[in-house]
Amino acid sequence: MSKRAKACDIPPKVRRVVHERDSGLSIISGRPGIPNAHYIPRSAGGLGIEQNIVTLTLEEHHDYDNGGKRKEYGEKIRAYLMSKYPGWDESKLIYRRYDYGI
């Protein structure tokens, strides 16, 4: 597994923390869901960290990744994550091969 793939994968500990944070419910509909949706997608280098992961139903996750709900759900997810993490910074959610802390 490459360093990027590993950084973008969601470790079991992060899944547990997100499941607890979201009470096991989709942040969109309030229905039972799975904590495995990246706000910044893996394909764009989205890290598998709790500040980038939310709980969605399978259908919502599919619609967010592949359907016409990217903008609508993205705005809700962004607002939710900002409310949970003071100082939340979208730029820190992306894998950077050479991150020198600048």
Description:
This protein has helices at residues 3-8, 12-21, 58-66, 70-84; strands at 34-38, 53-56. It is mostly helical and 102 residues long.
Rounded to an integer in angstroms, the radius of gyration calculated over CA atoms is 13 Å
N/C terminus separation: 27 Å
Let me know the largest β-sheet.
Answer: 2 strands, antiparallel
Q: What structural class do you assign from the helix and strand content?
A: mainly alpha
> What topology, given as strand order, has the largest sheet?
1-2
Could you provide a short overview of the structure?
It contains 4 helices and 2 strands. The protein has helices at residues 3-8, 12-21, 58-66, 70-84; strands at residues 34-38, 53-56.
Q: Which features characterize this protein?
A:
102 residues, mainly alpha, two-stranded antiparallel sheet, globular
Summarize the helices and strands and which ones pair or pack.
Elements: H1 3-8, H2 12-21, E1 34-38, E2 53-56, H3 58-66, H4 70-84
Antiparallel strand pairs: 1-2
Helix pairs in contact: 3-4
